[in-house]
Specification:
About 35% of the residues lie in helices and about 30% in strands. The protein starts with a strand and ends with a strand. It has a domain of about 160 residues: Rossmann fold (3-Layer(aba) Sandwich). The longest helix has 18 residues. The protein has about 230 residues and is α/β, with parallel strands linked by helices. It contains seven helices and ten strands. Strands 6-7-8-3-9-10 form a six-stranded mixed sheet, with helices on both faces. A four-stranded antiparallel sheet has the order 2-1-4-5, with helices on one face. The protein is globular and about 55 Å long. β1 and β2 form a beta hairpin. α4 crosses α5.
Length: about 230
């Protein structure tokens, strides 16, 4: 029996503006992602892939249609309820790492737990464990400017895992890295998907990155054009 969808989009449209300046960023997207899947979303610039990621990440609401995260229709939630879903269910990884320059790797990961009311002792212990998982324990007391791009992205991955999310969303996670560092980061993400069973959704324009996924959704002009499954 297939596992239930952890992400589901039903006829999702996103329209910006109106009249002559109306832009249809998403045009009737239907999508189901099961728990524990590793998915890549690929498409050219302006195809709607970032808008799609924003829908799944509860950072934006559809103009029409439904977005269900773990069975909850988030398109009907207010900002406070959306923030709760984001903090409890979703971890974000960005192209630019978004680490605080004045905090060590350890403190950057702990920061994600601070707003959840986790004690400093417990939070730092978990942060250390997560940095070990991504191979960064020996660098945990270093600041971002003392780390390479690949190392910073590993810290960002550990931070995304801080609140034990069901879903990790990665927006061009290797975009600022050289090819070797990019492959290493993708191997870390692949390992987390296999070991922890975390649902992983990666937006990329890079076919080398997409190769790591079990399934690729090709998006063009705001529509899912086709689905490619790994043989």
């Amino acid at each position: 029996m297939p596992s239930k969808p952890v992400v589901e989009l039903r006829n999702v449209w996103k329209v910006y503006g109106d009249g002559e300046v109306k832009v249809e960023a998403l045009r009737g997207v239907n999508l189901k992602i099961s728990e524990g899947e590793f998915i890549a979303i690929m498409g050219p610039s302006g195809s709607g892939k970032s808008t799609l990621l924003n829908m799944i990440g509860c950072l934006d609401k559809p103009t029409r249609g439904k977005v269900l995260i773990d069975g909850v229709d988030v398109s009907k939630l207010d900002e406070r309820e959306l923030a709760k879903i984001r903090s409890e269910k979703i971890g974000f990884i960005f192209q630019l790492f978004n680490l605080s320059p004045n905090l060590t790797a350890l403190e950057n990961v702990y920061l994600a737990m601070l707003f959840k009311g986790v004690s400093r002792k417990e939070g730092l212990k978990r942060a250390e464990e997560l940095l070990e998982i991504v191979g960064m324990k020996r660098r945990m007391n270093h600041y971002p400017n003392q780390l390479s791009g690949g190392e910073m992205q590993r810290v960002a991955i550990a931070r995304a895992l801080a609140n034990n999310p069901k879903i990790i969303l990665a927006d061009e996670p290797t975009g600022n890295l050289d090819s070797k560092s990019g492959r290493e980061v993708m191997k870390v993400l692949e390992g987390l998907n296999k070991k922890l069973g975390t649902t992983l959704i990666v937006v990329t324009h890079d076919p080398e990155v997409a190769k790591f996924a079990e399934k690729i959704f090709i998006i063009k002009d705001g529509k899912i054009e086709r689905e490619v499954k790994k043989k």
